[in-house]
Amino acid sequence: MNNNTPVCYLAPDELKRLISGENETVFQLLESRFCVQIQSRTPDVLLISKKENADIEGVLAVLDQLKIAAKKGSAITADWLSKMLGIMPGEGINKPNQDFKAEVIIRNRFGVPIMAKTAAQAKLVEASSKNDILFANGPAGTGKTFLAVALAVAALERKEAERICLVRPAVEAGESLGFLPGDLKEKIAPYLRPIQDSLAELLPTEKLNRYQETGAIEVAPLAYMRGRTLKHAFIILDEAQNTTIAQMKMFLTRLGPHSKAIITGDASQVDLGKNETSGFMHAMHLLKGIRGITHVDFEANDVLRHRLVKDIIAAYEDR
Q1: In the chain, helix, strand, coil percent, each to 5?
Q2: CA–CA distance from 87 to each of 32, 44, 146, 304, 316 (Å)?
Q3: Residues 6 or more apart from 204 whose CB is under 8 A from it?
Q4: At what angle do helices 119-130 and 144-157 cross, to 10 degrees?
Q5: Do the Cβ atoms of 128 and 260 come closer than 8 Å?
Q6: Mean of pLDDT over the chain
Q7: Hey, what domains does the chain have and what are their CATH numbers?
Q8: Helix H or strand E encompassing 85
Q9: Which residue has the higher pLDDT, 57 or 187?
Q10: Sign (positive or negative) of CA dihedral 41, 47, 52, 58
Q11: 132-184 pLDDT, tens per residue?
């Protein structure tokens, strides 16, 4: 087949109307995101032509998901698709200008490719391939944790790691842990929810459950790491700014042979007591210059949440 020959995607006309969006805005979003051109006038079929850097596999996977959702009664709109693709309000449908090379890390459960969206994210991806311990420091919404989880899941899927350990300190951010209902496991569940959400976006439910049941993926509070040695593992410590110096030392010394760790945190949001020093900043300073350990800084302009989040962060930094 000629490389420029359009790909035929079967879609009955009635279903085609359901998934195209008003004035075909859904198709326009797909064209922009996956560098393709979608022709919908041919009866019962979509003709998908490639442009430069086209991702045919990605757009076909998303079209499959759109058909399933439409058959279940979901109203397919450009906003609905934007949320599924992880496009933030204000980002628009066009890909941002990139001065870096972004390669696909993994495809999420919808078949959408996950890749670096900013120069800082691209730096994190590159640094993680060359170092066994990586510190990622920056404000919320820059994609540090999600990208780290994506790298870990990709390593597990490629059998480069035998297990993933996703860890968070259960530190109270202005609220009391003791007042939360339930036993200890139920009390700490809210602290681990962001990591669970990232996993749920990346992996189909059945596969995620299987990984967790077999112990291939473990999500746990930091305190559960004491006394363990983690071999052939990809370990992520999230919200690391809320670790003490002793906790950070304990975590870093858990690494066994053939293991890798990414430590993410935001130095501007420490919830420790006034007289406690964050182990996150302490470790970045103390371990600077050791071969195999590095760090990546994210800035407010790397934020990928709502466009107003950047302005909010800048306002607080100025204050």
Answers
A1: 45, 15, 40
A2: 12, 29, 14, 8, 25
A3: 109
A4: 40
A5: yes
A6: 82
A7: 7-85 (3.30.1370.10), 106-318 (3.40.50.300)
A8: helix 78-85
A9: 57
A10: positive
A11: 999 999 888 888 899 999 999 999 999 999 999 998 887 544 344 454 455 55
The per-residue pLDDT for 164 is 95
13: left (phi over 0), alpha (psi -120 to 50) or beta: alpha
- Give me the residue label for tokens 């979901």: 74
Q: Band the pLDDT of 263: cuts 50, 70, 90.
A: very high
Question: Are 19 and 76 a contacting pair, CB within 8 Å?
Answer: yes
pLDDT of residue 265: 92
What pLDDT was estimated at residue 136?
Answer: 94
CA 203 centroid distance within chain: 11
**CB atoms near residue 285 (< 10 Å):** 9
From the list 3, 84, 7, the residue with the least C-alpha distance to 48 is: 7
Cα separation of 309 and 313, whole Å? 6
In this structure, are residues 38 and 47 in contact, taking their beta carbons and an 8 Å threshold? yes
The pTM of the full predicted model, rounded to 2 decimals, is 0.71
End-to-end CA distance of the chain: 61
Predicted confidence at residue 101, as pLDDT, reads: 67
Q: Which two tokens stand for residue 208?
A: 């995620």
What is the 8-class DSSP label of residue 230?
B
Three-class SS of 292-310: CEEEEECCHHHCCCCHHHH
User: Mapping DSSP to helix (H, G, I), strand (E, B) and coil, where does residue 159 land?
Assistant: coil
The more confident residue out of 308 and 182 is 308
The C-alpha atoms of residue 28 and residue 37 are separated, in whole angstroms, by 8
Q: What six digits make up the tokens of 201?
A: 């976006």
67 close to 19: Cβ distance less than 8 angstroms:
yes
Amino acid (1-letter code) at residue 161: A
